[in-house]
């Protein structure tokens, strides 16, 4: 009894010692649940001795499933690769095919985690490789997903069906292809996997490889004879490659199925295809081989031609065909530019030599071609065979335009309506415009537009039905011509084309100005062509032109949603408030134009603030600094509110650099739609625009002198004995010097006949030549951000609005501070109509009116009571003028006077006033 | 996704104004007579996929204006046409007399291999007939044209006209007389033969034949 007790104590003691020595229990708890959690960590660490010890003599059920997923210890061992424990458990009768809650056997887990030894042992103990889990996945699926080829190789020996499907009908081959495991794919194929097996949606292994751009896998499949099959929705492997932009995989598909080439090309017509992806694919394929490059371009050219012809079919959908054509041509040009025959690569084209096709067809438009001919000689228009298919389309385009021109002629010669006299007038006006493109009266312009519509009425249907369609084809033609030229050069062929069809194109845009903005983008890139359409463009609403302006200014820049990208610390302009001008100048000159275009970030030294508000403030303060008299860069004009370059700015030796900087700041402000707090003189806005100044502009700097010039022009000077010559006396450091206005000017007398020239020359001397270096420096800076061709869209009034913004105008204040002369008084019906009209105008039109009369969009501080004229305070004045039919209002800006004809009705007044405002820049100079 | 066909043929419909070219096309495509048809402006476009000799062929048909003022524009569409329907009006001798001119245009401007079908349209207006069948068929023989009398109103022979033209072109391809790969032939391959592979094998024998093409 005592011995027994001792023995027991000894056992307990030895247990205790063992337990203490091993820092764990040495006896498995009775119940399975507690026991399994004791064993689990040991199994995970493959502590097989301990496990074996504990299991010895215990009643633990080795198949006990525990936890949320109901796994046995065998699962744990297989999952963790605890091979010794695994064997132990198997020996103790663990079921190798026990499935957990998701249906996974230990073999699944071993396969998923690539536990090679465990898998081997499980198979030894007759684990079933064909068991599917709840999703239908078998061990080989798991191996295939992860590309464990070696293990798969061992396993497939035991597999009864390598094509076992999961719940989605996917085999191991599908998943291996999707993930691009090449050797796994080969192994499965060698084991007899069905290479064309569709899953439940009809997707084959090739389909999976293509959907993820697995080039090498696709290659293996195709070389082993995989068929090219679409899924049940008709989506083909090629569709998938294109959608994903997988050029390399496409290339493989085409290698094996050459007909897919044509399909790929046809996809360019598909509106749903993402253009950038398709382009990426075509780019890649075209770069593989010269023959591919040739073939892609030729085929694209064919497709473009068919599309273009469809577009010219009146019953087709204009919108859809137009988009399709332009998309194809865009892709074509893109691919072309990449290729060996692009002039930008500096590579000579090996295909078609220096053929100048169809130069015989397009006859030179002799007058305008002088400049372009030179261009042509320097850079011969080298055609390439790939463009040939499109010649059909260009030929049709040409014939169409010729046809329309014939229609126009026919209608002009035999007007169907009895208005033959009016058509004569119209053609007369047309000629007049050609002679004098810049300065015709608004009334004429107006009348002419009206006439044109009437005259063309008979050909109306054909022209109005085809104009947009033809214009879209012209746009495509321009793109094709341009992509063969070095960047920034206009193709002589296209210039010839525009010259040839000048009249028809003008007719198109006159009738439907939207065409300019939609299709005539070439105008912005070719100043020489732009000038032909300028009068029509200028006739378009300011807003539309603004949109066009910014659309092209920002073209090629990242989208505005990129604004929020983090600012690089180095790109922040750090400005010192106490030397804002100098430090800004320094920072801007350090930065690059490209960075400044992308966005401006400003921080004031010692301040935290950043963001748009600070940028605004910077432009605001800086623009005030630019006109700070201390720098002597700009001087005030006579009215005290507007500025222009100071002819004596050279007192500051660095002045030209500062003008360059000022130009940059103004350009930048315009680029980023920031308003500046500067108003320039009308003449300086003209300088920015490159418009010649006239004698009236002189009044901003010297109103008295301007009056004298006006007097010379208004009166017959023949018998006055002025004895003026084409020269002026200037004060050069105290000594009077005679300065000729033109060569030999000192001995040429000013007469009644040449006085206009004299006034123009003397104006240019005062307004331009005196500050030419300053203007040039300013423009150099300005043009770094704003191309001259774009700013041309506006006149000097609009430029002021663009740079300085649209002011608020208080019509009540305006009304209260207006005076009347020459027979008007506030009770006069015409005056009352006038104010009613002003009240009904839009804000923009009121500003135009203010500019029209005062020369500036600015309302002075304190309101209209403080409006300045050439010589002191000068209120807004309305003066009566006798009415004759169609007479337009005019103005004298130096005395803020509106000369308002005594119109018979409010309607007429409104109509004429608006005509004057909208054609301001034409009518102004003549009045 | 894009349409399925083996070949694409470019067709022209030519002939004097008012002979019913647009109505023929409309009848062929829509199976309907176009009641109030205006003069065609320039060139109109239509297409239909047909089955000829076991092959699917997409006919891309350019219906040209007959009026003289559009002649220069319509001529620019001739190049690269595989087939043409030359149409006159059996009730108008004038349109018949103009055939020689149209024929010369087609033969000089289009590909020399162009297949031309002569269609005497308005067959339904027997009472007003000015051109006899015999006379026209003699003209056709002399000029090596296939000849049909059609009615866009009743639809008689319209389908036949287009299909006959397509069939002749297919025969010429088979015999090697026409090479679809040559530029300007007016013929293009579609990718139908590839797409059809996904159908169970052996449903039709023609498809198996096409497999050899790829």
UniProtKB/TrEMBL annotation, chain A:
<keyword id="KW-0256">Endoplasmic reticulum</keyword>
<keyword id="KW-0472">Membrane</keyword>
<dbReference type="Pfam" id="PF00632">
    <property type="entry name" value="HECT"/>
</dbReference>
<keyword id="KW-0040">ANK repeat</keyword>
<feature type="repeat" description="ANK">
    <location>
        <begin position="69"/>
        <end position="101"/>
    </location>
</feature>
<protein>
    <recommendedName>
        <fullName>E3 ubiquitin-protein ligase HACE1</fullName>
        <ecNumber>2.3.2.26</ecNumber>
    </recommendedName>
</protein>
<dbReference type="GO" id="GO:0032580">
    <property type="term" value="C:Golgi cisterna membrane"/>
</dbReference>
<feature type="repeat" description="ANK">
    <location>
        <begin position="201"/>
        <end position="233"/>
    </location>
</feature>
<keyword id="KW-0333">Golgi apparatus</keyword>
<dbReference type="GO" id="GO:0000139">
    <property type="term" value="C:Golgi membrane"/>
</dbReference>
<dbReference type="InterPro" id="IPR000569">
    <property type="entry name" value="HECT_dom"/>
</dbReference>
<dbReference type="GO" id="GO:0006511">
    <property type="term" value="P:ubiquitin-dependent protein catabolic process"/>
</dbReference>
<dbReference type="Pfam" id="PF12796">
    <property type="entry name" value="Ank_2"/>
</dbReference>
<feature type="repeat" description="ANK">
    <location>
        <begin position="135"/>
        <end position="167"/>
    </location>
</feature>
<dbReference type="GO" id="GO:0061630">
    <property type="term" value="F:ubiquitin protein ligase activity"/>
</dbReference>
<dbReference type="GO" id="GO:0005634">
    <property type="term" value="C:nucleus"/>
</dbReference>
<dbReference type="GO" id="GO:0005783">
    <property type="term" value="C:endoplasmic reticulum"/>
</dbReference>
<dbReference type="InterPro" id="IPR050409">
    <property type="entry name" value="E3_ubiq-protein_ligase"/>
</dbReference>
<dbReference type="GO" id="GO:0007030">
    <property type="term" value="P:Golgi organization"/>
</dbReference>
<keyword id="KW-0833">Ubl conjugation pathway</keyword>
<feature type="active site" description="Glycyl thioester intermediate">
    <location>
        <position position="894"/>
    </location>
</feature>
<dbReference type="InterPro" id="IPR035983">
    <property type="entry name" value="Hect_E3_ubiquitin_ligase"/>
</dbReference>
UniProtKB/TrEMBL annotation, chain B:
<dbReference type="Pfam" id="PF00071">
    <property type="entry name" value="Ras"/>
</dbReference>
<dbReference type="InterPro" id="IPR001806">
    <property type="entry name" value="Small_GTPase"/>
</dbReference>
<keyword id="KW-0813">Transport</keyword>
<comment type="function">
    <text>The small GTPases Rab are key regulators of intracellular membrane trafficking, from the formation of transport vesicles to their fusion with membranes. Rabs cycle between an inactive GDP-bound form and an active GTP-bound form that is able to recruit to membranes different sets of downstream effectors directly responsible for vesicle formation, movement, tethering and fusion.</text>
</comment>
<keyword id="KW-0547">Nucleotide-binding</keyword>
<dbReference type="InterPro" id="IPR005225">
    <property type="entry name" value="Small_GTP-bd"/>
</dbReference>
<keyword id="KW-0636">Prenylation</keyword>
<keyword id="KW-0460">Magnesium</keyword>
<keyword id="KW-0653">Protein transport</keyword>
<keyword id="KW-0472">Membrane</keyword>
<dbReference type="InterPro" id="IPR041819">
    <property type="entry name" value="Rab4"/>
</dbReference>
<dbReference type="GO" id="GO:0031901">
    <property type="term" value="C:early endosome membrane"/>
</dbReference>
<dbReference type="InterPro" id="IPR027417">
    <property type="entry name" value="P-loop_NTPase"/>
</dbReference>
<dbReference type="GO" id="GO:0003925">
    <property type="term" value="F:G protein activity"/>
</dbReference>
<dbReference type="GO" id="GO:0015031">
    <property type="term" value="P:protein transport"/>
</dbReference>
<dbReference type="GO" id="GO:0005886">
    <property type="term" value="C:plasma membrane"/>
</dbReference>
<protein>
    <recommendedName>
        <fullName>Ras-related protein Rab-4</fullName>
    </recommendedName>
</protein>
<keyword id="KW-0967">Endosome</keyword>
<dbReference type="GO" id="GO:0046872">
    <property type="term" value="F:metal ion binding"/>
</dbReference>
<keyword id="KW-0378">Hydrolase</keyword>
<dbReference type="GO" id="GO:0032482">
    <property type="term" value="P:Rab protein signal transduction"/>
</dbReference>
<keyword id="KW-0342">GTP-binding</keyword>
